[in-house]
Amino acid sequence: MGKVVMYASVSVDGFIADRDDQPGPLFDWLLSGDVALDESGELKVSQTSYDYIRPYWDQIGATVAGRHVFDLTDGWDGKPPGGIDHVVVVTHRPKPEGWDPEAPFHFVDGVEAGVARAQELAGDRLVEVAAGDVGGQALAAGLVDEVRMDIAPVVFGSGKRYFGSVDAQHLLEEPDAVIQGNRVLHLRYQVRR
């Protein structure tokens, strides 16, 4: 099984969205360079960010996200973001009416089931778990191996927390990557077992 990584862009004060559920300038770093991050050429980052992010993206076999994110993005129009092969949506509701059954999206009830399904789909590749409530639940359940944060230079003051509603202490190892890009600081921690 591949490693399970909790990941998101985050404000300096630990939020992945503001109080109106908007990312604001959290993703400005994805437009702050001159190196194309994907085939579309729309995302352009610094060479330093590219060298860190592109290999990570290439290792992802499946992403686990909550229904809230799925709904906010309109299901990414049935195409997983960033060229990822599969998205596992954790939800207590049925898939949307009229949803394309061929789209590589899998709807499951519960975080444990979501991570297990994503690991089946990803094989030995990485499973990415979106930060927020689902990511926090996966961390609390002991399912996360690594935490990655792209810290944007903004303070929200309130909003949607990176670790969701986690209310217990979880220790991480020393950061094994601290990389400065344009308008972003990339951090990576292993979860202490």
From TrEMBL:
Record-annotated Bacterial bifunctional deaminase-reductase C-terminal domain positions: 114-170
One GO term of the biological process aspect: riboflavin biosynthetic process
UniProt xrefs under SUPFAM superfamilies: Dihydrofolate reductase-like (SSF53597)
GO MF entries: 5-amino-6-(5-phosphoribosylamino)uracil reductase activity
Protein name: Dihydrofolate reductase family protein
Organism: Arthrobacter jiangjiafuii
Lineage: Bacteria, Bacillati, Actinomycetota, Actinomycetes, Micrococcales
